[in-house]
Amino acid sequence: MISLRASRILRSFAQLLPKLIALPKLTALSLSLSFALAGPSQLRAEPAFDFYVLALSWSPSFCLINEAQRAKPADQATGQCALGAASAFVLHGLWPQYEVGFPSDCTAGQPASPVFDQAKGLWPEEGLARYEWRKHGTCAGKGPSGYFADVRQALAKVIIPPDWIKPKQEMKLKPIELERAFVAQNPQLRPGMLAVTCQKGFLQEVRICLSKDVTTFRPCPDVVKSACRADRITIPAVR
């Protein structure tokens, strides 16, 4: 025969059981409501990444291709493409990478304009700095100050070969020759840690792979696969 105390315990459990059964449904419902009410920037976590790519664009090539696409005369160009700007290698970006592929556009929105004062002197134009922060910098897992500090450190880490600082004559050469020039000038840099890319037969940029703490060069097979396969490329002179 069941005691009075045991009977009360069974009765209480019977009353509680429907609530326990309903709990997972309520939890799922509350999670669904949370996702429905939260904005994209609240839900998207900053992804981890494996290394950085420092992309250095050859400005004369960019300007020539840009002019051809827009049919814009050189004497109307502004910024890095203005006559007399004398831009050679300029910063395209510092890109967080996975071993294969890369993250992008990791948070929504833009910081206030004064934040970009920290980026002055890094990119040739503020518009490019804003674009690169939104597309790549937001995936670095740190705020603008930390990301721009990484950009400065990356630029300071790489030495541009002297012959490539402001060449005044157009050249035609094999992509491997430019790669060797960078390897020779940067003792810790090795083949397999950078890629020379091309576009429409012109030198496009040099992409150099760096550790997440921006202290060492490192191998990056997936980036190297994007290297230019042309036998020779044209390197327009600085203007």
Question: Can you offer a commentary on this structure?
Answer:
- With 239 residues, this protein is an alpha+beta fold.
- It has two domains: 4-37; 51-235, Ribonuclease Rh, Chain A, CATH 3.90.730.10.
- The chain has seven helices and six strands.
- It has helices at residues 4-37, 40-43, 59-70, 126-135, 144-157, 175-185, 221-224; strands at 51-58, 89-97, 171-173, 194-199, 202-210, 233-235.
- The strands form two sheets. It has a four-stranded antiparallel sheet with strand order 2-1-5-4. A two-stranded antiparallel sheet has the order 3-6.
- The termini are far apart.
Please give the number of β-strands.
6
Topology pattern, helix = H, strand = E: HHEHEHHEHEEHE
Strand content: 15-25%
CATH superfamily of the largest domain: Ribonuclease T2-like
Q: What is the CA-atom radius of gyration, in angstroms?
A: 27 Å
CATH architecture of the largest domain: Alpha-Beta Complex
Strand order of the largest sheet: 2-1-5-4
**Biggest β-sheet strands, sense, barrel:** 4 strands, antiparallel
Tell me the overall shape. globular
Structural class: alpha+beta
What's the helix count? 7
The N- and C-terminal alpha carbons lie at a distance of: 102 Å
Tally of separate domains: 2
Q: Give the uncertain stretches in residue-range form.
A: 19-46
Rounded mean pLDDT is 83
What's the CATH class of the largest domain, please? Alpha Beta
Tell me the helix content: 25-40%
What is the CATH topology descriptor of the largest domain?
A: Ribonuclease Rh, Chain A
